[in-house]
Specification:
The strands form two sheets. This protein has an eight-stranded parallel β-sheet with strand order 1-9-8-6-5-4-3-2. Strands 7-11-10 form a three-stranded antiparallel β-sheet, with no helix packed on it. Strand 8, helix 8 and strand 9 form a beta-alpha-beta unit. The chain is built from 14 helices and eleven strands. The protein has two domains: 222 residues, Alpha-Beta Barrel (TIM Barrel); 76 residues, no CATH class. With 318 residues, it is α/β, with parallel strands linked by helices.
Length: 318
């Protein structure tokens, strides 16, 4: 399968695993890369020394390209950048911030830079900043999200029309048919997060994985738009936020409810009531925990089957 994303990253398939905090360590990243996609280490939840060890283990586990995702708001970002350069990581995905800050610096080090956006406006800014590719992430996605609530179905064709660099679709994609739909809308590849949370190699807590595969339609919601929008499963923590909204809580009061370490408490430590359980709407389609390589294979087989079915359909216009 050859296209701009495959050629840019030197991978077999245009399938990228998202760099999710507390869920995307070296085991998951190396497994996806070994299966022909691009695995990503999610560094947003890691201290600098932890990222250093994760990259070393990932390089030992796979000879294939892999990436590191860095949220631009990470407080020790300079140390993460130093670690990435030291280990010659070939690809960096940046998110949650201004791509101009580090893009030129990283590219001078020979690193491919990809930036995650949620709107056409920010896609154009990222292209102007010189990134090599863009991830356009729709409202369906888990975790931190765009305030505009633009769905993947609407976002991808708009961004594809406006930019001239490779485009990766994200948000609500967890099957081969969804991958084909994204490609039909103008994407060169897809980034998948939630489906890989429910993998054996994911560093998410087993209790969280079980909750994900039991999720139904409507079990997630985007909230906390006053702070930073986040999609999560409904639990007691989520209900405490709802109660605060009913009382017209201020942003400061919402910050106090959120506190610190909620995502770690929920996704990594398995506190299903008081933790922040970030996952996408596609969770309702996930019903089994599988090896990452099997997930990649399953998605690609369904993609090829759907593409063949699509090619066989003939329309007559009169």
């Amino acid at each position: 399968m050859k296209n701009r994303v495959v050629e840019l990253f030197n991978i077999r398939f245009p399938l990228i695993q998202a760099g999710m905090i507390w869920c995307s360590g070296w085991k998951l990243a190396s497994s996806v890369s070994n299966a022909g996609g691009l695995g990503i280490i999610g560094s947003g939840s890691m201290y600098p020394d932890v990222l250093d060890k994760q990259i070393i283990k990932c390089k030992k586990a796979t000879p294939k390209p892999f990436a590191v995702n860095i949220p631009m708001l990470y407080p020790d970002i300079e140390k993460h950048i130093e670690t990435i350069i030291k280990h010659k990581v070939p690809v960096v995905f940046t998110s949650a911030g201004n791509p101009k800050t580090w893009t030129d610096f990283l590219k001078r080090e020979g690193i491919i830079v990809v930036h995650v956006v949620s709107s056409v406006k920010f896609a154009l800014k990222a292209q102007e900043a010189g990134v090599d590719a863009i991830v356009a992430e729709g409202f369906e996605a888990g975790g931190h999200n765009g305030r505009d609530e633009t769905t993947t179905m609407c976002l991808i064709p708009r961004v594809a029309k406006e930019i001239n660099i490779p485009l990766i679709a994200a948000g609500g994609i967890g099957t081969g048919r969804a991958m084909l739909a994204a490609m039909n809308l103008g994407a060169d590849g897809v980034q998948i997060g939630s489906r890989f949370v429910a993998s054996h190699e994911s560093s998410a807590h087993e209790s969280f994985k079980q909750l994900v595969i039991g999720a139904n339609e409507g079990d997630t919601l985007l909230t906390l738009k006053e702070l930073t929008p986040v999609r999560m499963l409904k639990n007691e923590f989520f209900r405490s936020i709802e109660r605060a909204y009913e009382k017209n809580a201020s942003s400061e009061e919402l910050k106090q409810i959120l506190g610190r370490g909620r995502a770690k408490k929920g996704m990594f430590e398995g506190d299903l009531e008081q933790g922040e359980l970030e996952i996408g709407q596609v969770a309702s389609l996930i019903n089994e925990i599988k090896p990452a390589a099997e997930i990649v294979s399953e998605i690609l087989k369904e993609y090829e089957l759907a593409r063949a079915e699509q090619a066989s359909v003939k329309f007559t216009f009169s």
